[in-house]
Design a protein that fits this description.
Length: about 325
């Protein structure tokens, strides 16, 4: 988001105190959450990994660095360049100055802090610093997703580029956001970003009359044997006739549109097949519609909550993590 109200004067007014930046961050987070259809507790990293927009803190640093790059390229004797030289003198003398603030801001980056020496400023060194800031931003996004249980479906994800090759983008406007029907797009987005009505998400937080439920006990409301997560709900649950019928029609459609997927199905886990599925743009709209329909089926039945006294080290009767649960053959 590059709204001028969020980047006003950031070329010279650096965010040394991140507390003062918090109101602007809140505006950006709220806007992107509403755009994606996510709730206020959704992960901030998802907002940027899925849209390709930079966090406002990084955006403001980037604008400041490009402003400095502009100044360094000015002709000798230009007042702005003279002011920068004075700033360098103050920095070398250990006095407070704009360059010192910029060094503090760059040094506070959470991942892969770029090297910045304000006493030596050239077009090449500033250009490299801009690239390093981008690398640090992407590493921060990737690290945040990998560190959270909500990012299981997004860790190390590969997507097709224009040439058809699978590559990894830390931040990118994802192709599933082009789904034409808003309700379907929102359903698929919620499944991918762990912000849906399934037990895996809904039971991870304690509520007034219910404590936190361990992940392994967030069982499916239909089959009551496996964790109720997105891959299980879409591709594995056999506890509902409605789900089975929807899945049969969906797979028939998918295999017609992308025959290569049929060869991946035998022995493939629900998680891995789902990850393969979302890389195919040709089946994107029907996948989003199917996600919407499946969530409606789950929303029609109350969640199954295991009695807390039953929690134990051994887990459910038929424990199966989403990475090992094989898809039921519905065709």
């Amino acid at each position: 988001m590059t709204c001028p109200h969020l980047t006003s004067a950031c070329e010279v007014a650096l965010d040394v105190n991140m507390t003062l930046l918090a109101p602007l961050q809140k505006v950006q987070h709220t806007f992107l959450r509403r755009l994606l259809g996510l709730n206020p507790r959704s992960m901030c990293a998802f907002l940027f990994s899925e849209t390709g927009l930079p966090p406002i803190a990084y955006r403001r640093i980037n604008l400041a660095l490009h402003y400095m790059l502009y100044i360094v390229g000015l002709t000798p004797g230009h007042l702005a360049l003279c002011a920068l030289k004075e700033c360098q003198s103050l920095y070398v003398a250990g006095k407070p100055c704009w360059l010192g603030d910029l060094a503090i801001v760059v040094g506070c980056m959470p991942c892969q802090t770029p090297f910045f020496n304000p006493s030596v400023l050239t077009i090449d060194s500033i250009g490299k610093l801009i690239d390093d800031v981008k690398t640090s931003m992407e590493a921060h996004i990737d690290t945040s997703i990998q560190a959270s249980t909500k990012g299981v479906l997004l860790c190390g994800r590969l997507e097709q580029n224009d040439e058809g090759a699978l590559i990894h983008h830390s931040m990118h406007f994802r192709h599933y956001l082009y789904v034409t029907i808003p309700e379907h797009c929102k359903a698929l987005t919620q499944l991918l970003l762990a912000d849906h009505c399934l037990a895996e998400v809904q039971l991870r937080y304690a509520e007034r009359h219910r404590p936190y439920v361990p992940h392994i006990w967030c069982l499916c409301r239909f089959c009551k044997n496996y964790v109720e997560d997105a891959p299980h709900a879409l591709l594995a649950c056999d506890g509902s006739e409605d789900l089975i019928a929807l899945r049969r029609v969906f797979l028939e459609t998918v295999f017609t549109l992308a025959p290569v997927l049929k060869g991946l199905l035998p022995g493939c886990t629900a998680l891995h097949f789902f990850l393969y599925l979302i890389t195919f743009k040709s089946v994107l709209n029907c996948t989003a519609k199917y996600s919407h329909d499946v969530l409606l089926v789950y929303a029609s039945k109350e969640m199954f909550v295991v009695d807390g006294a039953a929690y134990g080290a051994e887990g459910p009767t038929h424990p199966a993590a989403p990475t090992t649960h094989v898809i039921n053959n519905m065709l």
